[in-house]
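Following up on my earlier message about (2R)-2,3-dihydroxypropanoic acid. Here are the inputs again, as you asked, copied directly from the submission form:
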Amino acid sequence: MSSTIQKAKQVLKNNWKEGFTIPCEGLYPFQWFWDSGFIALGWAHIDMKKAQQEIRSLLNGQWKNGFIPHIIFHNESDTYFPGPEVYAASLSKNSPEIPTSGITQPPVTGFILEEMYGIAEDKEDFLTFLDEVYEAIYKNHEYFYTHRDPEKEGLVYICHNWEAGTDNTPVWDFIWETFKVPDYQLDRRDTKLIDASHRPTNKEYQYYIHLVELFKTWNYDDTLIAENSPFLIQDPLFNSMLMASNQSMIRLGKLLGKNSEVKQLKEWNEKAKVSFQKKLYDEVQQGYVYYDLRNQRHLPYLSSSSFTPLFAEIPSQITAEALVSHFRNGKFSGVNHENFLCASFDPSSEFFNSQKYWRGPIWINLNWLIYKGLKKYNFEAEAQRIKEDTLYLINKYGFYEYFEPNKEKNKSLEKGYGGTNFSWSAALTIDLLTN
Ligand code: DGY
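Thanks, got it. Here's what our run produced:
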């Protein structure tokens, strides 16, 4: 077994906390929704029971209406802001006993379960587990299509930048300029733990906290949020994750004989596929972009999210070719391949920042999604390139949270960016090296 896999396993073991895995010591000391999915996939290669426990622990935080919050505060910690008292999720009539946040994250669990099923040696035993959790995940999809799709077009909205996962992409700058925020007292811990220049600014955090404060005044009521939230976005990454999970839930549902769920999931997914292509594809940019539902406009900027529809098999082969051109001698690769793939924001843009969180650096989970997506369309050369770039960065620096895309700058760097011993970087490296 390679020493990289050994080191990756050690990261997961160190971050395991009695039933769930923290993304990173200090910086993220609780369980996060989409992290838990990628982490469960890593565990599935090592210890299937822990992988299953990771999913069960996530579902302990599920709300009565099917909503899954982005953080489950299983434990106490004073190294993170904003904590459970800021979210005050109990204001919602749907919240569970356990403290959670009041916003969600990309719904990856459906396709992660299918990946786990593929890895499981004892398929019968896995199907028993699947039967236990299937309805909860189905209810989560039902929540999205019932409460997050006001125009009933098959595309769901996010109402907070932290729901996107791509927390501070430059795309949000154009939303922040549409409203004003008070000057909140911020008790940030992240900027004390790691290089503050790699994190969002305090001004950005004012917006993040303001949105939570608004949701609290509406007791997290989805109808009020849809009517009033200044942040209401149809996100290509989020919807791709939901659609890929729909498709996995259809295939897994057939194994379990869940006929009515399978029928409903197919209906949602077919509608979604048509609207996604019509509404989120930007002909000028030759890629998928965010749609600002509140202000009824495209936000025409390319990011790593623009390529994730490949993972959900949304584009036609012709559209997929257009996407991949950005990796050949295009914007993301650089004309002379001067960048590793795949920067989180268009490197040719004036808003690109190669070191700052989601404004440019490479993230391992997005690379994993794009790698898998490229393989689905038989773009073997590009898939191998993104895999090699990912493993090069991991082998050079270790399991950082994010990485510098520019090859020249990497020559003199000694570290990755953000947190270290980051769980999904380790988990997905195990998967990349095992498949
Ligand atoms: C953070 O605190 O940066 C998280 O990404 C929010 O979920």
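One observation from looking it over: Residues 70, 162, 167 surround (2R)-2,3-dihydroxypropanoic acid (CB under 6 Å). Hope that helps, and feel free to reply on this thread.
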